[in-house]
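Q: What structure does this chain adopt?
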Amino acid sequence: MDAEKIILKNFSQSEMEDWVQTLGHQAFRGRQLFQWIWEKGVQNFSDMTNLPQNFIQELENSCLLELTSVHQVQTSQSQGTSKFLIRLSDGKFVETVLIPESKRTTVCLSSQVGCALDCDFCATGKMGLKRNLSSGEIADQLLHVRRFSETPVTNIVFMGMGEPFHNYDQVIKAAEILNSDSGFNHGARKITISTSGMVPQIRRFADEGHRFKLAVSLNASDDESRTQIMPINKKWDIAELIKACKYYTEISRNMVTFEYVLMEGVNDGIGDARRLLKIANQVFCKVNVIPYNEVAEGYLRPSKKRIETFLEVLQGARFAVTVRWSQGDDIDAACGQLSTAALSENE
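A:
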């Protein structure tokens, strides 16, 4: 990438409007430029037909329009899920997943190359953290998927590679691009940001009044088990995490979703289910139970009988419980399976 050129996709709409004014153009030209990039997804400045020719020439001379590229697409023959290997300008890669279902089409976005949190059961965590993505690199993933998808994207989740709240500012900026009526115009309640439990950021998210949905990866109902699989629990234990989640729901009036990846012999016992019931009953929430997608050595998906027994304990809870069978496990595109560690450009 030409280091001297301006990367337009890293601008918010207001930043774009301010920037074009420094060039002597009116602010509405910035809004038009923003719309061409995100709403219309053009790949050439010459396609921006309502911009003056001298402005287009100025953009071609000083700015970059393309930020990332699709290196490879794999599609599950059995489930229809597609995994996109996205190449960044520095040669690193991230993965993005398209999940078409009967009533909705979901895109799972990455926010970091790798992840620093080292969750023991997660392939991305085994990579370590290479770097954060910019807001433009995050939002650009959706542009690529939108061009490929045969159905309109209805839901967006920040649940790909990385801990979104570890890259808080860029993730929020990207979500605002996705939500903007001059950008992708996705409803805020159709955009979900997930965290492994970064307590200060959960509180900040509440205080800032964001309308995006919040999901929290709980994955265990006692501190010993959670610390074993999620080292972040040493810093903010379950009690601190639940306190922050209650603060979020009280301030925002929005529900939080607890993600609970079910692993045999780790967090799938009757005692685990009873503790989960007690914890979740304290919070305005729903719980997604996710049978584990086998990635890491030593962790297995429970048998169907153990899953059913676990769910029986949760019957009659004050919160909704859903079982999410992850899509795309045959192409390593399911929850916890994303990794680009084998690619030399990441080293």
